[in-house]
Amino acid sequence: MELLKIKNIEKYYGSRSNLTKAIDDISFTVNEGEFVAIMGASGSGKTTLLNCISTIDRVTAGNIFLEDTDVTHLKGRKLNQFRREKLGFIFQDFNLLDTLTAYENISLALSIQKYPVREIDKAVKNIAEQLGITDVLKKYPYQMSGGQKQRVASARAIVTEPKLVLADEPTGALDSKSARMLLERFEYLNKNNGTTIMMVTHDSFTASYTSRVIFIKDGKIFSELSRGDDSRKQFFNRIIDVVTLLGGDMSDAV
Q: Which helix (H) or strand (E) covers residue 81, if one does?
């Protein structure tokens, strides 16, 4: 079932005398339950694309549909409600509130949506168990490792069961062990909970955990790969091949 539809979107920055086209007529769809990576070198337009989908930025032309809603037309209260109820955000720098424990950071999203206290407690403990962070629920961010903080941030994004989870370089600030653990948890949530995830990354190893990779170059779709029945290692090698064609200017470390 089609969840997200990107239709001929363009994004310009600057003035008429110095105009930059960050996104150049991009179109694609994402089905419900997919785990999709967006790859590209710095300046390729991948983060701009994610920002437009997440409604952080507005497109110059084209449309973005999530289910039956054209998000490019949402404003004010309706836009805030859409973000709150339909989207989950995971950022590279975690964006946790330092004065709240892990439990409180995760439960905040549910409290804002006025969930009953009993339901909040059940939901937080359930997602914490799935992400392997039950032992840090009472800790503050400064007491956690980078990997633990990112998993708490992921729990906060996913606990409300949004239609689409958007992750911007979620492994960028993590060591290799923590990155692998986070990606395995993403893979688990995608396969077992049916969570739809779109992740921006420049790293081939990270992208190899997904089911599909869309490559962006100079604001346009350069290529696309589906994992199919490949093992993660086989998919990684295919991704490396495309990265080589792109110029090899993205990280390809295993």
A: helix 76-86
| Residue ranges of the chain with per-residue pLDDT less than 50 | 251-254
DSSP for 186-214 reads HHHHHHHH---EEEEES-HHHHTTSSEEE
Please, which residues have CB within 8 angstroms of residue 101's CB and are 6 or more apart in sequence?
137, 138, 139, 140
Alpha helices in 87-208 (DSSP H): 102-112, 117-130, 146-158, 176-193, 204-207
pLDDT tens digits along 192-246: 989 999 999 989 999 999 999 999 999 999 999 999 999 999 999 999 999 998 8
Q: Where are the domains of the chain?
A: 2-94+166-246
- Beta-strand pair 197-201/18-31: unpaired
Prediction pTM value: 0.89
Q: Alpha-carbon distance 160 to 177, whole Å?
A: 27
Total residue count of the chain as it appears in this document: 254
**Separation CA 138–CA 103 (nearest Å):** 6
170 SS3 class: coil
Would you state the CATH architecture of domain 2-94+166-246?
3-Layer(aba) Sandwich (3.40)
